[in-house]
Amino acid sequence: MRTLVTYVSNTGNTKKVADAIFEELPEEKEIKEVSEVTEGLEGYDLVFVGFPINAFGPNPKAREFLEKHTAGFRIAIFITHGAPDEHDDVQTWMEKARRAAAGAEVVGVFNCQGEVDPAVVDFLLKSDDPKLREFGEAAPLTKGQPDESRLEKAREFARKVVDKL
Ligand SMILES: Cc1cc2nc3c(=O)[nH]c(=O)nc-3n(C[C@H](O)[C@H](O)[C@H](O)COP(=O)(O)O)c2cc1C
User: What domains are defined for the chain?
Assistant: First the structure.
């Protein structure tokens, strides 16, 4: 089975999860940033696609990738976000990702918290929107995420997806 892990990561959190998933996969496997996947997904039997949530939805580069390249392929989606793992909004964000990947066979999804960049925290705290300010106030709790326990959950996710096929 030929597997690709591809991701967008602005501050390194999603890359940590991508690396953990990649470690766990059997050969043959490749890992690339989304911007490096220039030839499409032909030849891969399974593709893990990961990205951060930016402004209440999938990162725009990742969304475009899902829309343009994943139809007809078997994919597993992983996301990182500043909100807690079990936050209600996570389902909405995942649903947006699934919609962007309409036409793909989604064989698994994973989400976990990732540390929010201090520059973003500052922006959130100064916002007029109470919801954004609320995220800003909770942001210090994200420090150090994804930690080892979350990376282990990501490895477990990778094993489950592969075992299911
Ligand atoms: C511009 C921007 C917008 C963000 N918007 C959200 C958001 O709407 N909801 C959320 O939970 N986290 C949000 N975050 C936090 C990131 O999703 C989180 O820190 C993620 O782990 C970053 O992943 P990365 O290091 O791979 O880029 C935002 C971060 C940035 C920089």
Answer: 3-157 (3.40.50.360)
Q: What is the C-alpha separation between 32 and 22, in angstroms, rounded? A: 10
pTM of this structure: 0.96
Distance set, CA 16 to CA 6, 97, 112, 154 (Å): 12, 20, 11, 10
Could you identify the residue written with the tokens 């699934």?
Answer: 98
Does ligand 1 come within 6 angstroms of the Cβ of 87?
no
| Per-residue pLDDT reduced to its tens digit, 35-71 | 999 999 999 999 999 999 998 999 999 999 999 999 9
- Minimal-distance CA residue to ligand 1 atom 18: 81
For residues 151 and 110, the answer to whether their CB atoms sit within 8 Å is no
Output the six-digit token pair for 27. Answer: 């050969």
Atom number, ligand 1, closest to the C-alpha of residue 87: 11
* Residues in contact with 101: Cβ distance below 8 Å, sequence separation at least 6, in sequence order: 49, 66, 67, 70, 71, 75, 77
